[in-house]
Amino acid sequence: MADEPMVTRWTFQDFKLFYDAKFGRKKQTEAQNGPTAEKPVSNGSSSNGNGHVQNTSDMAIYEQFQSQGSNSTHSNGVLSNGINERPQRSLLPPLDSADARALAESLCRDIIRGSPDVKWESIKGLENAKRLLKEAVVMPIKYPKYFTGLLSPWKGILLFGPPGTGKTMLAKAVATECKTTFFNISASSVVSKWRGDSEKLIKVLFELARHHAPSTIFLDEIDAIISQRGEGRSEHEASRRLKTELLIQMDGLTRTDELVFVLAATNLPWELDAAMLRRLEKRILVPLPEPEARRAMFEELLLSQPDEESLPYDLLVEKTEGFSGSDIRLLCKEAAMQPLRRLMTHLEDREEVVPEDELPPVGPIKPDDIETALKNTRPSAHLNFHRYEKFNDDYGSQILQ
Known about the structure:
By secondary structure, this protein is an alpha/beta fold. It is 45% helix and 11% strand. Residues 153-290 form the AAA+ ATPase domain. It comes from Acer saccharum. This is AAA+ ATPase domain-containing protein.
């Protein structure tokens, strides 16, 4: 190390000589002019004519890269042997610090790698909500030529409505149909116990989304992240900084042409901050299912066999006014449990244990089972539906029929 210049006293010439010795450029020049003898060094390194130490392991890596560089591509630190292969996009964008890289790696776990496999056709009803989502997210990606200037796409979309009406399923359908990079973000993804990390996570999240554009950031239960600020002066400083950073990043999306969409869902839209409502430009009400949608759900969940008594679908549609989609699923599950309960009672009365391959099949669902399920199941979200309609009248996107 005595031959190497001190770091604080390097001149440009010293740095050039050391760089050439370190990475072998001097060796290539000497190989063209003629071989030069090198003295072996006891620590596995060799010394060139300049007296600088050269590490053989580093040279081996460099020569390997040089030999493969003519017929390979270098992408994200990995060598590949494809001649015409395009370099793949790196998982992480160029970040300014190791802390930001660690935060980005933690957020990468929230990227949905595979398709959620939820098609538009698998969502019964909600035709207006699906149409507005296609206009807001799908069409700008498929036909970017038309969405410029005044018709630039909405960057913030809010899905609000009673619980169990299909807001998360609509977000999964967007991830399936749009084929964008989908970030499934919850409060646990962007809230940290370390001071300053929460707002850094928000910033890195949007940098990742821009790097992987076109992308969609889905904020489920957004009211847990950005409720109204400063109520009763009881808000913590860290929570306020997090909300401010999210508002700044959302405002930056509306001023760029990058295809990064923020898709938010909430059951309590009236608790959101007014500044966030302004940035969520498109606000879509996801209502309770209509009679046609309820009938389609019952026909899919409760199949009627041809040789059995038909189920009273009309009665089900009439008696389930105010039921959400999850309530209807619970009702169908309760109806399907009735024949299984009769079979379990019969099996429990027998003293011997019946082998698994000899168990009798479960009987069909009868109309009496439907009436019993209707008595035992109650809707969960119909009482506050007028609040969602009032919020939609005040702030929502009016739906044109």
